[in-house]
Amino acid sequence: KLMKGVSHTTPEGEEFALRVMNRLRGACEKWKAKTGLGFGLYGTPAESLCYRFARIDKERFGTIEDVTDKGYYTNSYHVDVREEIDAFSKFSFESQFQKISTGGCISYVEIPNMRHNTEALEEVVKFIYDNIQYAEFNTKSDYCHVCGFDGEITINDDNEWECPVCHNKDHAKMTVIRRTCGYLGENFWNVGKTKEIKARVMHL
Fold first, then answer.
1. pLDDT, tens digit, for every residue of 158-189?
2. d(Cα 174, Cα 192) in Å, to the nearest integer?
3. Helix (H) or strand (E) holding 151
4. How far apart are CA 105 and CA 133, in angstroms?
């Protein structure tokens, strides 16, 4: 976005992003041949860096729209969490970058509770099997220990986790599960990752 002024899901941005990724892959192959060491290009979510690097860059370069103004970075080749894109298109788009990421990769989509629509979920699983190396689903399965709410505990305007029913904000009295670093975890993330989680849109 900084270099081209457009998302890498546009034709111009995609061409540039693929050139960057292939340049990085070429450097890994060159270093591997020169040293005999197993260099690889890793498509990492680098979750803790998404805030740290964005904060440092904002201090150094100022506020840049859609780059340093969000409070977080979307890492690697991944589509910006705010971008409206369906699950199938997202997986198709990101699959081409996974092929270049010889050291590892992951892609994911945000989905609602699919317990009453398992047929649709099955279609996505089939698509993953045929089109992409490694993919995950993100869904919300939170629990408030104060009122017994079972669903999605949300992030309020002050970037605090809050039960939508009883408005409990005590981390010790709620269980919040989100996928970060490719894994489902419960650790109440730094301010940048919290902003990124809040900005995530549904893909299905």
1. 999 999 999 999 999 999 988 776 667 776 77
2. 21
3. strand 150-151
4. 8
